[in-house]
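Session log. Operator J.P. requested a structure for one protein chain; no other inputs attached. Running the standard single-chain path with token output.
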Amino acid sequence: MQKRILEELSHIFKLLSAEKRLAILMLLQERTYTVSELVEELGMEQSAVSHQLKALREEQVVTDEKVGRTVTYRLTDSHIIDLLENAEEHVGHLVKNETHAEWLADETSRKNSK
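Structure written below.
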């Protein structure tokens, strides 16, 4: 594997490794949010939310849109959306105390019943 690819993968996983950034991204998967809405939803300080949004914006994971005095943030990177969805699915069975084999059997059963 190319060194550059490994470096970029490491970089994006470091970006996603912060729990607060993940919490913000999980919310932004649902809809757009203002900073004040994120502050209220997450119970974080405004400065902390703004700091995390800045990091995400600099990496072009989220974009902001200003309408009048209101700035809304949106998760725009479809690759990050896919990563988050896959990661949620991956840990979903762990949260339910299922083994991967149990989850896979349930998933196969659900697909076969469609």
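Operator note: The first helix runs from residue 3 to 16.
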